[in-house]
Design brief:
The complex is a heterodimer. By secondary structure, chain A is mainly α. Chain A has one domain. A two-stranded antiparallel sheet of chain A has the order 1-2. In chain A, strand 1 and strand 2 form a beta hairpin. In chain A, helix 1 crosses helix 10. Chain A is globular and about 65 Å long. The N and C termini of chain A lie far apart (41 Å). Chain B folds into two domains: 161 residues, Rossmann fold (3-Layer(aba) Sandwich), CATH 3.40.50; 78 residues, no CATH class. Chain B is built from eleven helices and ten strands. In chain B, helix 6 packs across helix 7. Classes of the chains: A mainly alpha, B alpha/beta. At the A-B interface, helix 6, helix 7 and helix 8 of A face helix 2, helix 3 and helix 5 of B.
Chain lengths: 288, 249
């Protein structure tokens, strides 16, 4: 049973990552920086619970703030460029974050043990859950509370004028500008909300795996982040959730028995899915 | 209301607009006509802020709006429609009008949270009025992309009005319409007269321009070659020459 709880934890965290890219994608921007915000959230929350002895909940709040603030700061210069240029710019940022943590040492002595991130070795001993005696299913529930919260937030956005404005910007920037929408403000705000959600996701990830290292926050994770909302479709937040279940639950875990053939089939299935449902699992049908 | 002083916009070596002086009075419906490539659309785009003028100033209600970015010009009271319709196709008709409510009045009247995160209830009446005006009430939940051509034109006009403009820039609103639709558009434009909105109408369809405008300026090669009432313009030799070519009649 623990296997399934573990899988549900993974799906939950990846859903947060996917949702962080979802809101940015609504404005028509493809950002590969989400894994970077996720990494910052992971290290921030880990350091706060392990080194500063915080409870996890405020530490996750701090993760959200760090992720959001960084995304806002990155958003201003990055969103001046579009399309492929933005992909490259955000990719460079994500790699920059990863390399920062590759070189980041900050250890303090805690009893006989030295704890904290050590460069390439990563950050071990993020043991808030085991130290406090949380069961796997409790951790899973805890994660899903945040997933539900993020989904509710984005769902509410979608029903509000803000959501319509995000989509308007995604459709036609020139027209959006001409009806009085401040493109920079809208795009940066979406980026900031996305960064905060990724930050929380990262904080949760750090705590359920108990060990993080720079290599986990690579380009593959950044690609997954944008793949989820694209595969799921941008019609609603549920698409992203379904895509994470499809990719992580069925493609990654379900095909494990295939050994090395899995990666090959994985790619083929993504291509097939995108051909059958070009605007996403929850998008309109193929001839829409 | 609007005053252009030796406005110029060059694209490389092309002088799309070349030293244009124009004054539009408060409440006027002002026509801007001219052959293809005479700089009409460029003039509209420069006034709306799509690109900066190469030279000259744009005074709107006595203020130089040159430095204002596009979205601030809308807030100042300038709304527009596009020659090639630009709606938000994947939003509903209703939402197209909703996202366009960015006038200074709306900003002042509604707080930040109501304006952005509020639902649809607070603005129903206003949008219903716009839908009524454009005859799209029965299509309010349809995606804009699924509307017929004429309906899209109507929606774009309504979307511009949703911003409560003081100056409305209409860039060839009758392009592609049949004569019945042109007639309806004419009624619509005339019904705006007296509602406090000034209109700058760029148009090729003479039937419309001559029927609704108070005053017309004629552009050719980025310069104004004539200005006057519709009757004066129809009789103007330089205009006939620009349109028909050859010697003035």
């Amino acid at each position: 049973m623990d296997f399934y709880f573990g899988l549900a934890q993974l799906i939950g965290v990846h859903t947060l990552l996917g949702l962080s890219a979802y809101i940015v994608l609504l404005t028509g921007q493809v950002s590969l920086a989400q894994a970077g915000f996720f990494a910052v959230g992971a290290y921030a929350a880990g350091m706060l619970t392990v080194l500063a002895g915080w409870h996890l909940v405020p530490a996750l709040g701090a993760s959200a703030l760090c992720g959001g603030a960084l995304a806002c700061a990155v958003g201003f210069p990055a969103l001046r460029v579009k399309g492929l240029m933005l992909v490259i710019a955000t990719l460079a940022f994500g790699e920059g974050v990863r390399l920062f943590f590759f070189n980041f040492d900050y250890q303090i002595a805690k009893g006989e043990l030295k704890v904290g991130p050590v460069g390439g070795e990563g950050f071990r001993q993020i043991r808030f859950f085991p130290e406090n005696g949380w069961e796997t299913w409790e951790v899973m529930l805890f994660i899903w509370v945040f997933v539900a919260g993020a989904m509710a937030l984005l769902w509410w956005f979608d029903r509000s004028r803000y959501g319509a404005v995000l989509r308007a910007v995604g459709e036609d920037e020139l027209a959006a500008q001409s009806v009085g929408i401040n493109l920079t403000a809208v795009k940066v705000s979406a980026m900031t909300v996305g960064g905060a959600i990724a930050g929380v996701g990262g904080g949760l990830y750090a705590h359920y795996t108990t060990h993080i290292e720079h290599a986990s926050f690579n380009i593959l994770l950044a690609t997954f982040a944008i793949a989820y909302p694209i595969v799921g479709g941008l019609r609603s937040v549920y698409g992203t959730l379904l895509a994470v279940i499809f990719v992580q639950g069925i493609l990654v875990e379900g095909l494990r028995f295939m050994g090395d053939w899995r990666n090959l089939l994985f790619g083929a299935l993504i291509v097939l899915a995108m051909n059958l449902r070009p605007s996403g699992i929850l998008g309109k049908g193929r001839h829409a | 209301m609007l005053e252009l002083r030796s406005l110029a916009r060059h694209f490389g070596g092309v002088r799309a607009v070349d030293g244009l002086n124009l004054t539009v009075q408060d409440g006027q419906i002002f026509g801007l006509i001219g052959p293809n490539g005479s700089g009409k659309s460029t003039t509209v785009n420069v006034i709306a802020g799509l690109f900066p003028p190469t030279a000259g100033t744009i005074l709107f209600r006595g203020e130089d709006i040159g430095p204002l970015p596009t979205h601030r010009r809308l807030r100042a009271g300038i709304a527009r429609t596009f020659q090639n319709i630009r709606l938000f196709g994947q939003l509903s008709v209703w939402q197209n009008l909703w996202v366009a409510q960015n006038s200074a009045e709306d900003l002042a009247r509604r707080g930040f949270f109501t304006r952005w995160l509020g639902g649809q209830s607070g603005v129903r009446d206003e949008i219903a009025r716009l839908l009524e005006f454009s005859g799209l009430a029965h299509k309010q939940n349809e995606l804009a992309a699924n509307l017929a051509f004429g309906e899209q034109r109507r929606l774009e006009l309504a979307r511009a009005l949703a911003a409560r403009p003081k100056l409305l820039l209409l860039d060839e609103p009758a392009a592609g319409m049949n004569s019945e639709e042109v007639g309806q558009l004419r009624e619509r434009i005339l019904s705006l007269r007296g509602s406090g909105v000034t209109i700058l109408l760029v148009e090729h369809v003479m039937e419309l321009v001559m029927g609704v405008t108070d005053r017309i300026a004629v552009l050719n090669f980025g310069q104004k070659i004539a200005e006057g009432t519709p009757a004066e313009i129809q009789a103007h030799p330089a205009v006939r020459k620009a349109y028909l070519g050859g010697e003035a009649a």
